[in-house]
Amino acid sequence: MQHVGQAPSGDHIKRRKGHEGPRNHLITFAISIILTILAFAAVSVPGLSKGFVYSLLVLMAILQVLVQLGVWMHLKDRGHFWAILAMLFGGLVVLYAVVSVAYWIWFI
Amino acid sequence: MSHAHAEGNAIESLERTTLEGKNKILGFWVFLGAEVVIFGTLFAAHIGLRNEVNFSVSGADIFSLPIVAIMTALLLTSSMTSVMAIQAMHRHDTKGIAVWLAITVLLALGFLCLEIYEFYHYVHEYGFNIQESPFSTTFYVLVGCHGVHVAVGIIWISLLIGQLFKKGLTVVTAPKIYVASLYWHFIDVVWVFIFTVVYLMGKVG
Predict the structure, then answer these.
(1) What is the CATH topology of the domain spanning B2-204?
(2) pTM for this structure?
(3) Where along chain A do its domains lie?
(4) Are B182 and B28 in contact (CB under 8 A)?
(5) Which of A93, A65, A51 is nearest to B44 (CA)?
(6) Residue of B nearest to A100 (CA)
(7) Rg of chain A over all Cα atoms, to the nearest angstrom
């Protein structure tokens, strides 16, 4: 049980950005819920064009994921350079795969 | 040196007090980068083949959005409760960690039960087997891969709760809990793309 109970209270020391308490996390939760409801609603509304709904869905998914990666997984905080780089490399491979598939389906 | 470093940075969180803890988190991000590639390529395969229904049912025919909405709510809430576990950890509240992690596991179990019911329903109601069509194959592999990750997460976090009771909150157990919460957020992030690309776009056609 080392360290437990010995941590400074934190009132007299400026706390690191990102550890300010649950407020940002709750805001992220609210944003996620709103974006999810909007996504499900966009599908249920009749008369919208397919291309418009697709773009809207992808946009909201990317927004929600960025907010969750940034706040819940702390990527926006200091000291996450290599973590962001790892995710970007993974994302690059995915972009390559998805664009290749799209090209294969629609242009070959 | 590391002591001076810790002082310079004001309060370092418990999961980052040791070099081992820091490295564990960094290494886990590399693992998550690789997971992005796994899921991304499965998504690419599904996007390419999702209209190849082979004269069988399509996503628009079988997907039930209310069930997907409930699953999404369960997983999103479980991601939030794992945030609360980390918040409890930063308050050195061992009991709080255990309670929030237990809620996370319960919500995940609900998600997994619904997913199993969903697959069972597709197979028995529509004969939608994995070998039915390119669409069914990529659907089951992609969503099933996510489901396996959820199952692994349930076992992992349950074991961590046990270890927390046995060893308490230390500089050794704290990085493990932090990393498990990162994993759990990542599972939720993948699900965001699954309900968007597979279910909602599948429903639109």
Answers:
(1) Four Helix Bundle (Hemerythrin (Met), subunit A) (1.20.120)
(2) 0.88
(3) 1-77, 78-108
(4) yes
(5) A93
(6) B44
(7) 20
